[in-house]
Every structure is written in C-alpha cells, then in structure tokens.
C-alpha cells in the first residue's frame, strides 16, 4: 500500500463503494480529500451508481481526521485555506449529489472524520465506533464540519462535543442521531450496510433526488458558509499555540 494512501471506487449492482485509506490511521491529507470530493461528484452523474457507500479500509479507525503532517507544513494563509477547503468540498459534494450516501463506520473517528459521518444521509457503525472532536484542544475548532455535525445531532450535543473534546461511544452517537444503527462487529455491520444499499439502489431515482433535497433543505448557503469557516481555521492553525499543540500531540 502506498504511503500516500488511496481512494478506490467500485460499482456493482447499482451500489458505488468509495474506499479511502491512509497508513496513519486513515488520516486525510489534501490530495485524498480532493480525490474523494471529485469522485463523489462524478458518481452523482454516473447512471450506473444508484447509491454510494463511503468507507475506509482496514479494521482500525474509520478516520483520524486532518493530516497533522500537512497541518504542520502549512506556512501561509493560502496554503492553509487550500487544505481546509478540502473538507468543505467533500461535505458539499456529499450534500450536492442526487443520491443517498451511506457511510460505514467500523472504528473510531476524530475531527474531520466525524464531519464526514455527519454529512452522510445514513450512517451505520460498529459498536467500537467512538467519536471525538479534538480541534478546540489544539487551538482552533470544528468550524468547517460544525454545520454538518450540528445539523445531524443538534446544537446542544454539538456544543458539548466541541467544547469538552472527549470521546463519545457508539451508543451516544446513535442516541443523538449521528448513527442510524449500531452493530456488534464488522460482520453484522457489513450485512446491514449491504442490505440498506441494496434497498436504496432499487428505489426511484427521481424520488431519491427529491427526498435528498428535502433532507438538506436550509443548507443552500453552505458554499459561502463553509468557505468562511475554512478561513477561520486557516488563520488559527498558523498560530504558535496551534502549531505547538499539534507538534506535542504528534509526539504522544
């Protein structure tokens, strides 16, 4: 496997499966975010794909969020914004395509990984799939993913998750609406994902497109909002506080 990770897309029986991988706990550097967003938009216009399953490879973490190596390497506002816009574009792509996106969560998710889950139309998880928003502890905040997370779990739960930066287990996620279902182990999870994807792939494409618009009503301004949020993160991540905090976290 490449040290740079990969994004693979496979389409079978109307089910498009997008799988991403990075050797550092499925963290997301900018090039993977770009591939995922572009791939998602392409699937939106592909008649062979009726539903999209987004997943990460391996049986470990679902996603460690933003690549710390890349965050430490940014040396200008422009480079920083370009990186953070990768998360914005992926969330917007998931929102924009006229097909349901199912996210399969086999393990822990941090930061941007939680945002990807929240941007799903339907998320299914294993009972090991805890989540955490660690950004505030590092000197910035879950600004870009915030609208997606708040939309899914509500302002009170999002506020607690963002402020205390503690792990929340899979049952908390289900109770608060982040996960639609939680399953004991990957085998049961895979069966549930396949069953749901197969069901949705047989649904009316026209009805799906309309229902997707209903699901995302009120987010029409997100192109501008997420860019504004990316600029917040871009400025803060360049601060001495945040650079030192990220460097210290990497040494753990």
Describe this entry's structure for a reader.
The chain is built from 11 helices and 8 strands. With 252 residues, it is of the alpha/beta class. Helix 1 packs parallel to helix 3, helix 4 (112-118) crosses helix 5 (146-153) and helix 5 (146-153) packs across helix 6 (155-164). The relative contact order is 0.15. It has a single domain, classed as 2-enoyl-CoA Hydratase, Chain A, domain 1 (Alpha-Beta Complex), CATH 3.90.226.10. The mean pLDDT is 95.
Topology:
Elements: E1 6-12, E2 15-21, H1 30-44, E3 51-56, H2 68-73, H3 77-96, E4 101-105, E5 109-110, H4 112-118, E6 122-126, E7 131-132, H5 146-153, H6 155-164, H7 170-175, E8 181-183, H8 186-201, H9 205-215, H10 222-237, H11 240-250
Parallel strand pairs: 2-3, 3-4, 4-6, 5-7, 6-8
Antiparallel strand pairs: 1-2
Helix pairs in contact: 1-3, 3-10, 4-5, 5-6
Query: How many individual domains?
Result: 1
CATH architecture: Alpha-Beta Complex
Which overall shape is indicated by the principal axes computed on the Cα atoms? globular
Count of β-strands: 8
Radius of gyration: 17 Å
Order of helices and strands: EEHEHHEEHEEHHHEHHHH
Please write the CATH class name: Alpha Beta
Q: Strand arrangement, largest sheet?
A: 1-2-3-4-6-8
Share in helix: 40-55%
Distance between the termini: 25 Å
The biggest sheet, with number of strands, parallel, antiparallel or mixed sense and barrel status, is: 6 strands, mixed
Task: Spell out the CATH superfamily.
Answer: 2-enoyl-CoA Hydratase, Chain A, domain 1
Summarize model confidence as the mean pLDDT.
Answer: 95
CATH topology: 2-enoyl-CoA Hydratase, Chain A, domain 1
Helical region count?
Answer: 11
Structure classification: alpha/beta
- Poorly predicted runs are none
- Beta-strand content: 5-15%
